[in-house]
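Researcher: Structure for this, please.
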Amino acid sequence: MLPKLIKYLLKEAPQSQDTEVHGWVRTKRDTKNLIFIEVYDGSCFDGIQCTFDRSAGLNGKTEALLDSLTTGASVKIKGKLISSPACGQAVEVAASELFVFGEAPAETIGDIQGYPLQKKRHSLEFLREIAHLRPRTNTFGAVARLRSRLAFAVHRYFIERDFHYLHTPIITSGDCEGAGAMFSVSTPDPKEFFGKKTFLTVSGQLEAETYAAAISRVYTFGPTFRAENSNTARHLAEFWMVEPEAAFAGLEENMELAEDFLKYMFNSVLEECPDELAFFDEYVEKGIIENLKNVAAAKFSHITYTDAVKELEKAHSANKGLFEFEPRWGCDLQSEHEKFLTEKTAGGPVIVTDYPKEIKAFYMKLNDDGKTVRAMDVLVPRLGEIIGGSQREDDLNKLMARMAEMNIEPQDYWWYLDLRRYGSVPHSGFGLGFERLIQYVCGMANIRDVIPFPRAAGQAEF
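Model: Predicted structure, C-alpha cell format:
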C-alpha cells in the first residue's frame, strides 16, 4: 500500500495514533534535547514537523542518523501524530524511529558538488541549470501540480462534450503550417527509412481533420516541435498543443468553443489549485487571481482584423512611437499590438477574425471578398494571443487553387484533398499552446519555467 501523503496527514485529527512520514528533509534544527525535522513530499507546500526527544531515549542508530542528517535527504520517520504546540500547524509527529533512504551531503567533495538546494532563495536562472532538482522547490512543485490539474481539465472538458481523444503521429511527412521550421528525422543508414523525408510534427491538425470527417469531434493533446532558432522567453523547440477539430462547425461555433474552453480552464484552476494560485499571486505576479476571475466572467469581444488594424493605426498616429512595429493592413499582429487591443481597445479578452490570406495557412477557408480567410485569434490581457484557429476550407477547387498560389504540391497532400472529394463537410478547429496557458495562469515570465525539461536552441541537457 502506498504511504499516506503529507497533505492528508496535516488534516488528520491528532489522536496519538501511530503514523509514518515519507519524504525529503527540508530543515533540521537541533536544541539541547529536541531535534526538529521538517519533512515534505511535494504533495502540498507545507511540510510536517517531526520532533525527536533525546530525553525520552533514542537508540544509538537513530542518534547517529540524526547527527548526519542534512537537507535534501530522503527519509521515513515513525512516530505518533499529536497536537502541535507550535503556531502555524495543527499537528506534528512525536518521532521515535528514523530510516534514511538516501543521503544528500551538503559539502562539495572533489568533483561531486554538494546538494545545491539549501534553505535560501535561488534565482530561476540558476534553477534552470539544475532542472532535475528544481521540482523540489516551492515554485516548481507548484508549477508541476498546477500543470497536472490543467492537463486533466483539458481531457475532462472535451470528453464531457463528446470529443474523442486522438493520438496523431509525431513523425510526419507534411508541413501543416507551411513555415518550413521542422526537425528532420533520420537514421544512421543514408537510405530513407520511411521511403521519403520525414519530420517531427508541428501540429496534429491535418490528421485530426481526417477523424473529424468520420467521428465528428476529436481533439489531440501531445508534443509538437518547431525548429525556430529563437532564444527568447516565449519560444520552445518542443511544447505541447491542444487541438480540437469539429465537423459541421463554422467560425462562429469555433469561437464559442474557444471562449467556453478557456473559461472552463480558468475556473477549474481557480477551484482546484487555490493554494498554488495564492503562491503565484504573492510571489510571482500580483493580481493573477483577480485577472483570471475577470477573464472567466467576461464576454469576449469580437473585432475583425481590418477594424483592429484601424484602431492600432489611429493610436500609433496619435502617439508617435507608441509601437515598435508600425501597424499596417497585411502585417502579422505583434505581441504589443495584441496587448493594446485587449487592454486599451476592448478592455478585456477579444477575438480577432478574418485575417489577410497572405499571412495565414493554406487550409483556412477563404471569405467571399477573396482577400481574407475565416481565421480567428483569441487574445487575452497580459499575454496577447493564447489561441489560434480557423474554419477549414472544405471546397476542393478552392483549396487546390489556394495551394497553387502558395506553391504547395498537391501530391504531397493527396490524402488531405480526398477529404474534400468524399463527403466534405464544413469543419473548424483551433490550437492552444499548453505552456502558454500555464504561463498565463501562474504568471511565470519565461516559458522554460513551465515545462519540466525545456528544449530550446542550444538546450537539451536533461
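Researcher: Any notable elements?
Model: The chain has 13 helices and 16 strands. The longest helix spans residues 138-160.
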